[in-house]
Specification:
By secondary structure, the protein is an alpha/beta fold. Helix content is about 40%, strand content about 20%.
Length: about 450
């Protein structure tokens, strides 16, 4: 016999009762696991849906590479009453956000805020910088590199692809050879951090390749901006993109994009159709501290708070924190004898780990539903084969400790031999660098 609990509002179906009468009822009882509804019908004459009685409360931890946890300060900012977007009050918010984003992107250029996911900014980059039939070079080393190619193909562009083994970074020399072969290439489309494979691409070396050439370097920095140092102007990145639900510590719904002077000139020449993502039009509006279209008001208020947190911490400290957490997570999974997806060029945003033999991909769902810790699994060719443990945005040392502890327990529950505390202890040894000695 299995205990079941039902909390439902139902309508009686016995003919002797008034069918218009609705009532609420709750109970706990034992019944045959296969026929809980038959038991309910016999006992009380109602049709209900049952669920098994759960045990203790499970606290939830979000350790996926997006969306990421949102700090209380940001939640409170978003919970303020909504103000109208065509007012001096909202213009003041936009002005602060524009200044903060310039500091984050390390650029003198305008950083535009769009009401979309990061993919919207990727599409905006393609449509605003090309004309039909133009050639682009795509670095395809994962799910999001593949997305660059799909966006470009959708707009009738000629796509040259550099296919990179998943888990490896692109070789800048391969990019140089492709540009030599196709000197008419307009854009080089790459990721700063390929989220699907947890790889960090060498953006600085890619920028050195495109510098002085006709091609513009467009970087999807959605899990890179705010994670590691990516100075747009100093490196010579022509377009840099991020999204709100990663290191910016917000819910999904905002994309940010900045263009170099050369990129803005290309936007003036572009003839690819666009409407909502018309970046010159959006730039003209945001120069006046407003937006071309109705903005995501509450998210922008949250963005102001998030940027304040990051700039108060100071960007070098933000990058150092992410690097420390990444080193600790990698040390932890190594101590468990597990293999990294990106052993040579790991991203500080998330750590990809191959599951050991005998442990199925459904461990991700088990950890989420039964232990309360949300990681991410693999995509496409890596589906069911890896787990991605994130450490970006609103994350600190104890997120790594909790994540590794949960991962150890999940592995053990699926029959993998685990020396409890091995991964956690290895991570703690690294994380001690985050804490001062007593008396200092």
């Amino acid at each position: 016999m299995t205990p079941w609990r039902a909390f439902v509002s139902v309508r009686p179906f016995r003919k002797s009762l008034d069918a218009r009468l609705a009532f609420s009822w709750s109970t706990t009882g034992e019944c045959d696991l296969q026929e809980p509804n038959a038991w309910a019908s016999e006992q009380i004459g109602v049709r209900v849906f049952f669920r098994p009685v759960k045990g203790n409360m499970i606290k939830k931890y979000l350790l996926a590479p997006g969306p990421t946890p949102v700090p209380p300060e940001v939640l409170l900012a978003m919970a303020q009453p909504v103000i109208h977007h065509r007012t001096p009050q909202f213009e003041a918010v936009v002005a602060e956000v524009r200044d903060g984003l310039r500091q984050l992107f390390q650029t003198q250029q305008d950083v535009l805020v769009l009401a979309s996911s990061g993919t919207g900014a990727m599409e905006a980059a393609v449509t605003n910088l090309t004309s039909p039939g133009d050639r682009v070079l795509v670095v395809n080393g994962g799910k999001f590199g593949e997305r660059w190619g799909k966006i470009a193909a959708a707009y009738g562009l000629a796509v040259t692809e550099i296919k990179v083994e998943w888990g490896r970074a692109v070789d800048p020399d391969a990019v140089a050879r492709a540009l030599d072969e196709y000197p008419d290439t307009r854009l080089v489309l790459a990721q700063g951090s390929e989220t699907s494979t947890t790889v960090r691409h060498p953006v600085d070396r890619l920028a050195a390749v495109t510098r002085g050439r006709k091609a513009l370097l467009v970087v999807d920095g959605i899990t890179a901006v705010g994670v590691f140092d990516l100075p747009m102007d100093d490196l010579g990145i022509d377009v840099l993109i991020t999204g709100s639900q990663k290191a910016l510590m917000l819910p999904p719904g905002l994309a940010c994009i900045a263009l170099s002077e050369q990129a803005w000139q290309a936007a003036e020449r572009s003839t690819t159709p666009r409407y909502y993502f018309d970046l010159p039009r959006e730039r003209a509006s945001q120069a006046k501290d407003t937006t071309a279209w109705t903005p995501a008001i509450s998210l922008i208020a949250g963005l102001r708070a998030a940027l304040d947190l990051m700039l108060t911490e100071r960007l070098p400290a933000v990058y150092a924190r992410h690097e420390l957490l990444a080193r600790a997570m990698r040390a932890g999974v190594a101590a468990l004898g597990l293999r990294l997806v990106a052993p040579d060029d790991p991203s500080p945003a998330a750590t990809g780990v191959y599951l050991p033999d005998g442990v199925p991909g459904k461990i991700v769902g088990y950890l989420r539903d039964e232990i309360g810790v949300t990681f991410a699994g693999g995509q496409d060719a890596l589906k069911g084969k890896i787990v991605r443990l994130a450490h970006l945005g609103y994350a600190d040392a104890f997120d790594v400790v909790q994540g590794l502890a949960a991962f150890e327990m999940g592995l053990a529950r699926f029959g993998h031999p685990v020396a409890f505390g091995a991964g956690v202890g290895a991570a703690q040894a690294v994380l001690m660098d985050a804490f001062p000695e007593p008396g200092r």
